Amino acid sequence: MACLFDPVNFGAIALPNRIMMAPLTRGRSDREAVPNELMARYYAQRASAGLIVTEATGISREGLGWPNAPGLWSDAQVEGWKLVTDAAHRAGGRIVAQLWHMGRLVHPDLGGGQPVSSSATTAPDYARTYEGKKSYVQARAATHDDIARIVGDYAHAARNAIRAGFDGVQVHGANGYLVDQFLRDGANFRTDEYGGSIANRLRFMTEVLEAVGGAIGIDRVGIRFSPNLESQGVEDSNPLPLFEAVARRLEELKVPWIELREPRLPTSSGVVPTPLVSPHMRRLYSGKIAINNDSDWTDAHRRVIDDEADAISVGRLFIANPDLVERIARGAPLNDGDSSTYYRGGAKGYVDYPLLGEAAAA
Ligand SMILES: Cc1cc2nc3c(=O)[nH]c(=O)nc-3n(C[C@H](O)[C@H](O)[C@H](O)COP(=O)(O)O)c2cc1C
Fold it and tell me: Sign (positive/negative) of CA torsion 111, 294, 224, 233?
């Protein structure tokens, strides 16, 4: 039976404990998507996590539609990320970059043109832009040339991640973004070899993982999914066979670790999950599995104890508790987060949460 404080290897990365920091978009970069010293401080404060997964990070201008989110396509971004990886490593941590193409969720004000997706669809709700919330526009279906270019952008960003000093990358395959828009039949209506059957819907993810693995070595690559949740209008009519096929494919590709955002109960935003797929994936996939339970890390912990998973991944509690690992170890009380500063702002609500024994900032 694994304990949260037992070490574990995720491919080439040796984690000293099994408490991961989940990817968390915080919107503190500049408009050129360049990371900075403030972000370096934030990540270094959380270096005791077994592994930090960064906030989602754009692989290209076209793929990044979130105000003040960072990127990994330019040299200036690589230089900015070096501040972060140096600080995290000096503090004793391990850090991987979450590689992001938002697909149809990129508003043209940010991406600079009509967004691309698997199919010509429009996301529900509203995009965040620098001028406030705006309706999404209809995406165009990616051509074969688009797909080849985007796959190349993933590989380029992965190489840049290594240049920037990251220990590896996590492909963002969750939450209704581009990889998910290809995987699930609620967003993929293609009739070519990238749509229709499950095998076809897996093709884009497979090409991305092969390209990223070819660029930096598959032992430094993980991927995240949200298999039992509808996300931003993306869902599947039959998640179990889809994610069983995903598990088989990841096994073939030798992807060493995955992270699943897989709640058992309705999420804090009210989305009702379908049944868990991780017990089925576990039987087909020999890599490591981290579970992000959405609001209840103790359930994820139980799944590690029961050997259904290898690690837990925690999001919001890491925002409010930089020393979360120590607090869990000691059973210490946890700070509450301020959701008004989750996605925007400066230092407040970002680098000023108190450590154990410190008083809260006024
Ligand atoms: C402020 C905020 C930003 C998030 N950003 C990302 C992100 O960049 N990439 C991602 O895959 N998930 C993102 N998520 C989802 C979290 O990683 C996590 O799955 C979710 O918060 C539920 O876990 P928790 O209850 O431990 O916070 C974000 C969630 C929040 C609250």
Answer: negative
Please give the distance, rounded to the nearest whole angstrom, from the Cα atom of residue 23 to the centre of ligand 1.
6
pTM of the model: 0.98
Average pLDDT score, the chain: 97
- C-alpha 134/C-alpha 50 separation (Å) is 38
Does 360 have pLDDT greater than 80? no
DSSP labels for 155-186? Answer: HHHHHHHHHTT-SEEEEE--TTSHHHHHHSTT
Burial class (CB in 10 A: 0-12, 13-18, 19+), 165: middle
Segment (H or E) for 151: helix 144-163
Question: What mean pLDDT do residues 327-333 have?
Answer: 96
What's the average model confidence in pLDDT over 315-322?
A: 98
Average pLDDT over residues 6-22: 98
Catalytic residue among 43, 136, 154, 177: 177
* 343 is an active site residue: no
Q: Residue 44: which of 78, 7, 92 has the closest Cα?
A: 92
Q: H or E segment at 13?
A: strand 13-15
Contact between 256 and 219 under an 8 Å Cβ cutoff? The reply is yes
- Per the CB < 8 A criterion, the answer to whether 82 and 52 are in contact is no
